[in-house]
Model the fold of this input.
Amino acid sequence: MNGTVKRVVTDRGFGFIATDSGEEYFFHRDQLLSGLDFDTLRQGDRVTFEKQAGPKGPRAVAVQRA
Done:
């Protein structure tokens, strides 16, 4: 899937990605693929990811820059 980083909460290690269709996915820094440093992610960055069911709804895994 493709999306845009909507928000990054750097001190807590997570963020949210919005797809072009308006869906929003939670992601945790542990779900970034190697080569993508969590501390360099910024709002508006384009990313690709896979969708996975999580305990509080769908979440993004295997996140990498688009």
About this structure: The chain has a mean pLDDT of 95. The chain is about 0% helix and 55% strand. The CA atoms of residues 3 and 21 lie 9 Å apart. The first strand starts at residue 2 and ends at 9.
